[in-house]
C-alpha cells in the first residue's frame, strides 16, 4: 500500500516536471529546420559560438557559412560579427572576420562587436553598434535551437530581428536543446 502511494506520488511529480520541460522543448524547437527569410536585410548579426585554436569551431562555421551564403546571394549587405575574447588570444569576432574575408567577404562589409561574453551581451552590444539602424529589420543568424532565446534578447535590446536559423550537422542537438531549456529557465528566474 505504501509502495503504491510512493509510485503515484512519483508519477505525479514526474508529470508536473515534464509538462513545463516539454513546453520549453517546444519553444527551443520552434525554428527547427526553418529557412532564413527570402527578404533583403541591410545587416545580419552573426552570434559567436567558439574558436578552436583561433579558428571558428565547427558549430561557428555553420553560422558563418549561412552568413556567407546570404551575403553572396545579396540578401544581406553587412555582417555584424558578435563575440568577445575567449581562449586563444583573439576575439570570436576577429576569428569570424578572418574566416569570412578568406572566403571573399569585403572587410568593409563587416562590423565587429568584440566585447560580449554571452548571448544577452551579444545583442546588447550589437544594438549599441546599430543605433543608426533603429527601426530597421535585422537578420539574426544563430542555431535553430538557440533562436528563441536570442530573439528574446534582441527584443530586450530594441533590435527588430528576423530569424535566420542554422540547423546543425555537427552538434548533438538533443543535448543543446536541453541546455537551452535550462538557459530559458535561468532567463525567466533571473529576469536576464
Q: Summarize this, please?
A:
With 192 residues, this protein is α/β, with parallel strands linked by helices. Helices cover 49% and strands 19% of the residues. It is built from six helices and seven strands.
Contiguous uncertain segments of 5+ residues: none
Tally of discrete structural domains: 1
SS content category: alpha/beta
Distance between the termini: 46 Å
**Radius of gyration (Å):** 19 Å
- Average pLDDT figure: 89
- Can you count the helices? 6
CATH topology: Rossmann fold
What is the CATH C level class, in words? Alpha Beta
How much helix, percentage-wise, in residues? 40-55%
Strand order of the largest sheet: 5-4-1-6-7
Largest sheet: 5 strands, parallel
Assigned CATH architecture: 3-Layer(aba) Sandwich
CATH superfamily: HUPs
What is the element string, with H for helices and E for strands? Answer: HEEEHEHEHEHEH
Pfam family, one: DUF218
Keywords: Membrane, Transmembrane, Transmembrane helix
Amino acid at each position: 500500500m505504501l509502495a503504491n502511494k510512493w509510485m503515484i506520488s512519483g508519477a505525479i511529480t514526474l508529470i508536473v516536471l515534464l509538462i513545463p520541460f516539454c513546453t520549453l522543448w517546444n519553444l527551443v524547437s520552434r525554428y527547427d529546420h526553418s529557412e532564413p527569410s527570402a527578404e533583403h536585410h541591410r545587416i545580419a548579426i552573426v552570434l559567436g559560438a567558439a574558436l578552436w585554436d583561433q579558428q571558428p569551431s565547427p558549430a561557428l562555421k555553420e553560422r558563418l557559412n549561412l552568413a556567407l551564403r546570404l551575403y553572396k546571394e545579396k540578401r544581406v549587405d553587412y555582417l555584424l560579427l558578435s563575440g568577445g575574447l575567449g581562449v586563444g588570444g583573439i576575439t570570436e569576432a576577429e576569428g569570424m572576420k578572418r574566416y569570412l574575408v578568406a572566403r571573399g567577404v569585403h572587410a568593409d562589409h563587416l562590423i565587429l562587436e568584440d566585447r560580449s561574453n554571452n548571448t544577452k551581451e551579444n545583442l546588447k552590444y550589437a544594438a549599441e553598434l546599430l543605433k543608426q539602424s533603429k527601426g530597421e529589420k535585422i537578420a539574426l543568424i544563430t542555431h535553430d535551437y538557440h533562436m528563441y532565446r536570442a530573439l528574446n534578447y534582441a527584443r530586450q535590446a530594441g533590435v527588430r530581428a528576423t530569424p535566420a536559423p542554422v540547423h546543425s550537422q555537427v552538434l548533438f542537438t538533443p543535448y543543446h536543446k536541453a541546455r537551452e531549456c535550462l538557459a530559458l529557465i535561468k532567463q525567466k528566474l533571473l529576469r536576464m
